[in-house]
């Protein structure tokens, strides 16, 4: 094991940059596993026919009020939800254009740094050539699509709106269009066999997506899927099955030349998701919209998960950002970094920890790592960075518990 270096050299791979996340909290219907803050669009419109217009205006105001919380140029924008494309294109496209222009213009302060990645989430049933053209004209250069499965019965089991045909059709259109995109899959679905999972991955990789994410289905309290599990109507995949599915996934990705750079994320080289990487490489981000979180490196700001109070605060004659603040303790910040970085291929950088939080903290982390290192749960290339082997990422909780720091 390489001892931690004592020089004060800064890490040159840490350029100052930031990201902006915008939450669109409307969906056409609620999927059974979803615990994100999202509202059925029809019900929201029934309550207030202008709710889309008001919401988009509120987000624009929040951006103006808060963008200077970022002390670096915003090089990535991510519009997620919810389902951004649940908002009609005639409203969504001008909104996206405005956001793009505003961010580009604000980046002039920083030598005109470019927005290198502007992603919009979409569902398969919304994908069309017209949608892609319109998004492109608004500055969008990447789409993230929730495929989840190519099997209609599996999609029905989690109450997705689309079917197998829509999954295939959307990917064909995306491929044809040439736009950069990422596709999500879920494994451990009810009744999903190992063979079926293997065939889902094959179906996706046959499209050669530039990037894809694969998540193990989780049963979150408060969701319909969780209730069904409690009633004994569905069974959660056991750890052994989940691990075998993870193994099938990582092997298939490797065979097709994908870089597995984070527990759930795979890309062809050079197409790693820049925005999502903010969450595990300490890049500050500004989160706008209902329920969005922001983090500037010290403080977490959390917007209300309430459409009415969010809109009212921002459309008032004297608008105020409606967030609440949670000052992160030093130990929490370090532990967040440990937990996220150790499930990436880049791993945990002790130099980075020392640079950001001091030698004392770095020594404490190193001391914890040393114990696991001896048992083989963590490896190092001798460059003061440490990794959990890829095959252990899915079951790394026990290792992470050993590495995180105890509260002072
Ligand atoms: S479309 Fe996405 S955000 Fe909306 S309910 Fe389904 S999983 Fe949740």
* CATH homologous group name of the largest domain: tm_1862 like domain
Order of neighbouring strands in the sheet with most strands: 9-10-8-7-6-5-4-1-11
Radius of gyration: 22 Å
Largest sheet: 9 strands, mixed
Bound molecules: iron/sulfur cluster
Characterization of this structure:
It is a single chain. The chain is an alpha/beta fold and 408 residues long. The chain folds into two domains: 260 residues, pyruvate-formate lyase- activating enzyme; 74 residues, Orthogonal Bundle (Arc Repressor Mutant, subunit A). The chain has 15 helices and 17 strands. Strands 9-10-8-7-6-5-4-1-11 form a nine-stranded mixed β-sheet, covered by helices on one side. Strands 12-13-14 form a three-stranded antiparallel β-sheet, with no helix packed on it. Strand 9 and strand 10 form a beta hairpin. The N terminus is likely disordered. It binds iron/sulfur cluster. Iron/sulfur cluster (SF4) binds next to loops.
């Amino acid at each position: 094991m390489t001892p931690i270096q004592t020089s004060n050299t800064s890490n040159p791979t840490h350029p100052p940059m930031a990201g902006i996340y915008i939450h669109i909290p409307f969906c056409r219907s609620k999927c059974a596993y979803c615990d994100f803050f999202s509202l059925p669009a029809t019900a929201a419109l029934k309550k207030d026919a202008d709710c889309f217009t008001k919401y988009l205006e509120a987000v624009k105001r929040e951006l103006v009020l808060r963008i200077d919380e970022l002390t670096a140029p915003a090089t990535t924008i991510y519009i997620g939800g919810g389902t951004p494309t649940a908002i009609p294109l005639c409203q969504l496209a001008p909104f996206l254009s405005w956001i793009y222009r505003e961010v580009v213009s604000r980046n002039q302060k920083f030598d005109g740094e470019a927005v290198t990645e502007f992603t919009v989430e979409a569902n398969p049933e919304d994908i069309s050539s017209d949608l892609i053209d319109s998004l492109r004209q608004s500055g969008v250069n990447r789409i993230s699509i929730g495929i989840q499965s190519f099997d209609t019965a599996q999609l029905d089991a989690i109450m997705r709106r689309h079917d197998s045909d829509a999954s295939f059709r959307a990917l064909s259109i995306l491929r044809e269009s040439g736009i950069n995109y990422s596709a999500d899959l879920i494994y451990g679905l009810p009744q999903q066999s190992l063979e079926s999972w293997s065939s889902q991955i094959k179906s996706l990789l046959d499209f050669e997506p530039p990037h894809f994410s694969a998540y193990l289905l989780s049963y979150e309290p408060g969701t319909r899927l969780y209730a069904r599990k409690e009633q004994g109507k569905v069974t959660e995949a056991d750890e052994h099955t989940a691990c075998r599915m993870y193994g099938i996934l990582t092997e298939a990705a490797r065979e097709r030349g994908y870089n597995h750079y984070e527990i759930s994320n795979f890309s062809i080289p050079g197409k790693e998701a820049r925005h999502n990487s903010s969450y595990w490489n300490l890049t500050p981000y500004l989160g706008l919209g209902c329920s969005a979180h922001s983090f500037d490196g010290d403080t977490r700001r959390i917007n209300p998960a309430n459409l009415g109070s969010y809109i009212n605060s921002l459309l008032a004659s004297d608008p105020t950002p409606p967030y609440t603040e949670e000052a992160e303790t030093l130990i929490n910040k370090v532990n967040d970094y440990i937990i996220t970085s150790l499930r990436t291929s880049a791993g945990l950088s002790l130099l980075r920890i020392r640079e950001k939080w001091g030698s004392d903290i770095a020594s404490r982390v190193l001391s914890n790592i040393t114990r696991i290192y001896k048992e083989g749960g963590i490896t190092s290339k001798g460059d003061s960075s440490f990794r959990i082997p890829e095959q252990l990422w899915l079951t790394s909780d026990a290792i992470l518990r050993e590495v995180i720091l105890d509260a002072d």
